[in-house]
Amino acid sequence: MSSAVATLNRLYAWKIRGVRWVEIIGVLLVAAMVFSVYLAKAAAARESARISDLERQISDNGQRVRLLRAEVARLEQPNRLEALSRGAGLGPVDVHRQATAENLPNLAPIPEPRPVIIAPTPPAAADAPVADPVPGDEP
User: Which stretches of 63-125 are assigned E, i.e. beta strand?
Assistant: First the structure.
């Protein structure tokens, strides 16, 4: 067992340019941990910015929904709709103009549209003279 301890002591005491290899590995591990913490903080900052942007969009959309609901409530007011219908010349149906079940057979049916007749085109004259080709227009 003393040979194993001696080998371990010799490895621990091994130096590269006056610095023990254990210290070099320790510094590299600390540097790797610092770099990984930096990357984690940068990723968390990006996610935090994304979350705040989404929260801002949600609040903006909520404000738009409230405005649209208020606009719908304003547009659906009965007094406003009644004034618009009167301005357009609309009004309630007269009671005497309503049809009853007994009057339905007497109502005039909707006339069917007349079919459109397309006049035939006159046939081309077979004995029409054919123009002579111009000498410069040959294909």
Answer: none
